[in-house]
Amino acid sequence: MRKIALILLLIFLLPAVFFSAYEISTLSRDEEVIYQIYQDQLDGILYSANQYSNDVLDGWVAKIQTGLETTFGDSIPEKINTLLELNPAVSLIFIGDTLNVSESIQVFSYNDSLRSDEFRKKLASTLADESLRIKQLIRYKESSFQKKEALPSNLNELRGLVLMSFILETAYNGKYVCGLVIDPNLFIEELLGPKLQEIAQDKFILSAYNKNSEIPVYVTNDNDSASTVTIAQTKDLWSLPDYYLGITTMGSSIQDIVNDRFSTNLILILLLDVILILGVWLVFANVKKEVSLAQNKSDFVSNVSHEIRTPLALISMFAETLEMGRVKTEEKKHEYYSIINKEANRLTGIVNRILTFSRMEANKKALNIESVDLNETVRDVLSTYEFHLHNKGFTHSFDPRLESTIQADNQALVEVIVNLIDNAIKYSNSKKHIDITTGQKNEFGFVSVRDYGVGISKQDQKHIFDKFYRVSSGDLAKSRGTGLGLSLVKEIVEGHGGYIDLKSEPGKGSNFLLYFPLNKS
Ligand code: ADP
In a mutational test of the pocket of ligand 1, which residue from 396, 427, 465, 493 has the highest number of ligand atoms less than 8 Å from its CB? Predict the structure, then answer.
C-alpha cells in the first residue's frame, strides 16, 4: 500500500504541486506585464491628447505668421483679428521687432485692460527681463526650430493666464518676437475638451488638472463621481506647464482588473489542486479496499481448506477403523457413526454457507417475504440448538417482548439467528452464556443476541461485516471460520429493508441487534 501511495504521489501530486508553484510564481509576473502594456497604452492616449493641443497652438502660430506676411500699420491685421475673434481662449496676441522689443511691441486684444498703453509697457518690460530666453528662442529659430515657450510673468493682468512666446520670421522684415496669452481653462474646456471626449468614448475617463488643485478643470464623464475616480496614469500638458492630464478606465480600474484576474487564476489553480488531491485520495481509497479484499479472499481460501480438511480427516479415519473391523463393541461403533455423521453435517454446513453466500452474491436468492412471528422462529432455532448449546457448556435465556409480527423470509431469518448464535459460541471464553431477546423499536421488530465473550474492538467493528473479513489478532485466529457469516447476515438483513446494531467491548462481550420491518397490517 505504501508503494501504491508513493507511486500515486509521484505520478499525480508532485507534478501538480510543481505546476501550481510554477504557475503561481509566473502569475504575478504575467499580470505585471499586462499591467505594463496597459499603462503604455494609456500613455499613448495621453500622448495623442498632448499632440493635439500642440497642433492647435501650432495652427495659431501659423495664422499669426500669415498675418505678419501682410503688412500692418495701426489697424489689427485681418488674420490676427479673426484669430482673436474665433478663439476666446486667446486673450491677447503681441508682436514686436526682435531688434527693439520695448519700442516696437504691438498688442492685439479685445480686452480693454490688456489693450491699454500702460499694459503694453509692462509687457515690454517683462519681455526685456526675459531677454535671455528670447535670445535662446531666436537661436532656435535660426537653426529652423520653431519653439514656443511659456514665459513666467508676475503681471497682475496676466494672473491665471499663460504667456507663450515664440519667434517668427518674414522674408522682408526679419525676425519678430511674438506671443499669445492663453486662458488655460478656456483652452482646455473649449478646444482640448471635445478632443478628449472623442478619444475617451465610453472606454476611458480623461481629465485635466491644474497642478495646484485636486479638482479637475475638465472631465470627460459628466458623472459627478468622476472627480473622485482614482487616476491610473498622468502626464504633463506640454503646452500649459501648470496643467496635467489624467486617464483612467471606465468602470473598474486596470489595477482592479489585473488584481481580479490574479485572484481568479489563483483560485482556479488551487481548486484544481484540491480536485486532484480528492481524486488521488479516491483512487487510493479504492485501491486500498481492493487490496484488502484480495488479501481477505486469499485468507478465505486457506481458512476454508482448513475447515474442510478437519472433518474430512476425522470421517476418513473413523470410516477406515470401522471398515477394518477393529471396533468390537456396538456402543463404540455407534459412537464412531455419530462422529462421522456430525462431521459430515459440519461439512454440509460449511458448503451450504458458501453456496448461500455465492447465491446472495449473484443476487439469485430471492427473499420469500411473509408475515413471520419472530418469537416463534427464535424458539424453533433454540429448540433445535438446545442440545448443541448444552454440549458446548452454554446456558441461555430468551425474553420475547415483540408483540407484533415482522415481514421476513423465515428461512433467511433462521439462517441469520443461527449465524449469530454460532458466533456467540465460537467467540466466548469462560463465561458461557447467551441472552436472546426480541422487541420493538419504532417501525422495526428486533432480535438481540448477547454474549459475554471476547468482544470486538472499535476498529474491527467497522470491518467484521465485510466479505471474508476475520479478526486476525489474538486468540481469535485459533477458532476457524470463513469470514462469510456476518457479511451474509448483513446482506440478508438489508435485503429485508432492515439494519444491524452492534454493541461490543473487547473482553466484555458483544450484542448484535437485527432490525426487521414490522408487519403493517
Ligand atoms: P467467521 O466467524 O467465519 O470468522 P463472521 O463473518 O461470522 O466470520 O465473523 C467475522 C469476524 O467477526 C470473526 O472473525 C470474529 O472475529 C468477529 N466476530 C463475529 N461475531 C463475534 C462475537 N460474537 N464476538 C466476538 N467476535 C465476533
Answer: 427
